[in-house]
Amino acid sequence: MPPMPAANRAQEPSTWQKRTMGAMMGGGVGLTIGFIFGSYSILRNGSGPRGFLATLSQYMLSSAATFSFFLAIGSVIRNDALLPPHMEAARLQLLPPLVRSKAEGAMLVRARWDAERARRTAA
Q: What keywords are annotated for this sequence in UniProt (predicted)?
């Protein structure tokens, strides 16, 4: 299959768009969690002097704000790569793996220990 022309290629979302998407997802999750835990708290302890709706809305809004904040930050951190995804995939295919066998790891550790001993005896 021939490569797609540059004009038809989809662009990666910007950092601002990633943050906004994370905040919106966090807001939705937070509202849901706030509704569940707020309803449980109101049923268990009563609504208090402010009433049912005000208490439930405070639970929902505070939970939504918290989730929104952390998911916005997390989505930017998680998606903030130096290389585009297709270049990262190519890099992973072409470079040797970073995971080594136990024997190779043991050889590296022994070599480092030997080098450290040589340095200590020379000094």
A: Membrane, Transmembrane, Transmembrane helix
User: What are 56-65's pLDDT values in tens digits?
Assistant: 999 999 999 9
The amino acid sitting at 14 is S
pLDDT in tens, 67-120: 999 999 988 887 666 677 778 788 778 877 677 778 888 898 999 999 999 999
Report residue 3: phi and psi, to 5°. Answer: -65, 150
Q: Please say whether the beta carbons of 76 and 18 come within 8 A.
A: yes
How many CB atoms sit inside 10 A of residue 61's CB? 15
Q: Where are the alpha helices (DSSP H) in the chain?
A: 15-45, 52-79, 85-94, 102-122
CA atoms within 13 A on the CB side of 113: 6
For residue 25, give Cα distances in angstroms to 38, 39, 58, 62, 64.
19, 21, 19, 15, 9
- Fill in the DSSP letter of residue 12: P
Interior angle at CA 85, CA 80 and CA 86, nearest 5: 160
Q: Residue 93 and residue 19: Cα distance in Å, rounded?
A: 30
